[in-house]
Design a protein that fits this description.
2 copies of one chain form a homodimer. With 401 residues, chain A is α/β, with parallel strands linked by helices. Chain A contains 17 helices and 15 strands. At the A-B interface, helix 4 and strand 9 of A face strand 15 and helix 17 of B.
Chain lengths: 401, 401
Amino acid sequence: MIDFEYLDKIICSTESKILMLVIDGLGGVPDKKTGKSELDVAKIPNLDQLSKISSCGVANPVFPGVTPGSAPGHLAIFGYNPLKYLVGRGFLEATGIGINLSTTQIAVRGNFCTYEEGKVVDRRAGRISNQKCLDLVKLLNQVSVDGMKIDVYPVEGHRFVAIFDLDSSLISKISNDHLNEIDCSEIFCSIKESEDQIFTKLVNDFIGKSLQILSDEKRANGILLRGFSRGTNLPDMKNKYKLNPIGISSYPMYIGLAKLLGMKSVSVEKSLDKLVSAVEENFENHDFFFMHYKDADSKGEDGDFDGKVKSLEAFDQFVPRIMDLNFDVVVITGDHSTPAVLSAHSWHPVPLLIYNENIGGDKVQSFSEKEFLNGQIGSVDSVNIMMLSLANSGKLKKFEF
Amino acid sequence: MIDFEYLDKIICSTESKILMLVIDGLGGVPDKKTGKSELDVAKIPNLDQLSKISSCGVANPVFPGVTPGSAPGHLAIFGYNPLKYLVGRGFLEATGIGINLSTTQIAVRGNFCTYEEGKVVDRRAGRISNQKCLDLVKLLNQVSVDGMKIDVYPVEGHRFVAIFDLDSSLISKISNDHLNEIDCSEIFCSIKESEDQIFTKLVNDFIGKSLQILSDEKRANGILLRGFSRGTNLPDMKNKYKLNPIGISSYPMYIGLAKLLGMKSVSVEKSLDKLVSAVEENFENHDFFFMHYKDADSKGEDGDFDGKVKSLEAFDQFVPRIMDLNFDVVVITGDHSTPAVLSAHSWHPVPLLIYNENIGGDKVQSFSEKEFLNGQIGSVDSVNIMMLSLANSGKLKKFEF
């Protein structure tokens, strides 16, 4: 998985328009009893029809066997090697809700969780409402810790962002590697014995006081922190690809990712109609559209096979409206697989479809993991999807010297 | 083919158990007359059935077009990049029979061979018996060379190990690159003209005297040396993967390899029953099992198509007993292909099957090279097999920052 080092030499700007539809957690695996995956079961006639007239294949998100989080999964899709650009989840979430991190700040992604007898029993606190999240964040903002300023912001449902502002002598001791080593997967955070423990102690002080202030809650009586990260810069898609890109999502993290890559970003309500409407409304003014559909991933993570099937069927209904826009190139893929059978993200290759208005289809007859193995694209690393999309849209000139 | 540099961050220890079944020389190629490979011809109903409920694919051992020896082939399977860890065959054989090399020693793998009119006519001396090997090794131990102590040990059949103990001023002149350059493929050894010739002369003195002392033998009247190597350290599987691994084989080299990677090793008689019994007996105490089955490779090297078919059919009979142990993950693959048509190891991709008790199968309907090309895993480098095995067993956490 490497970058094409001569991209500068062949990239060019054209009138053609690319739509990148990311179905979060798209890929599944067969249920052992039925032998069928979510895509095998779903009634998705429009996607099936589209697959007949498109180039199909499968994409490996990060590395064989590696299960990516959403951030590395998406970075790969946009052609940013996720092993090179280690963008922290906390930073992305903060960017998504409009926070610009200063050089003394560290952002962290938080979950409210259910904590019983010293164990985390539900990592999402039963997916509490946005209003509940707002109320609980107010409580967390009452917590104070000596030596560190803390601001907590609600994100969505059980998700929040905490910003830790440290004095400059402390922040200078904390490397990115240090931040990556912090593990709060069992509520309190820990780090290798050899590391400086000061920051970890401050965070644990915050966690301890948070548990106290949440102690009357039935479900959301704990917090889980991850993705400790500071601000970072990535190459802008406008410069890298000579595109005028726009990202459309209902979730702050993906809005954050779009902003980070230099896309205009549009946050919409959680509705396929709103997502597609935003594409329609902005059609004239951009040449690259990233539309992010989350529901398939959420249902997969909940182990809700039938729910994931329904979310795919819901997406399918909007395919004709999307195709009516006459994009030159339409790409449909996922950032990773989220098989309902595993109730989690997984390492499995993700279906990849590239529709090019000038090119006919391959052997593929329906939209599924198994069927896409027969496709013309074969098996590629996700980091190559962007190159294939640009090529199909005529934005890559012949490579020669 | 690179290592995943963040393995430390995602590897975790769990209760799940992995069985890695290595069928040495598993892959074949079609016979020109019939169009069928050994696997196509073999009656292997249990492997066929298992392939229907597993994820299948093909694995490339080292590099496209490169035919691996058994050591690089196996290192790749265990996730050790064989282009990075150049472990000498002599060292492996020595480790396998329990010899720890001191810093002044060089180990070499030997074959008794048949030598007529200045030419090697049978590289394995008609596969002589273990007893014959013992007798001949006694003869070789009578050979003495000024400036070098020599100890020869029997291994198995035509195989032996010689340990050359040099004085410290000489050993310091011999680099690993120097050892890799020594070529004894036509009995006497040679090395580039530019290299120091002292060690080569001592070895040729040993070879010359060995030919004299073996001159009354009809079949085993010559020796072939290869894999000149000194001791080396590799990362331990216990640390690298947080596993408690065990290796089970009937051949010293594979026992040596298992030891070298930090596995407990169990040497058993040449019998599938004994191999499987050793897996059963140690089931409770380990979470990773490497079981090595040699016969397919031996028959392939002899150009014995029907013999290789029979060895695969013999393996197949033990599949139900193996599956009855209820491993969470069962992997079946080979270290390289050994097509009977070529009477040698080859560069061809090797079938790879991963059974995961939670996940259904892909499109594959039978266990063969051709059929596995339709599998969900696609085509991977063998060095990634270990990552896929760990992922399937739930031992790799999500990758994100």
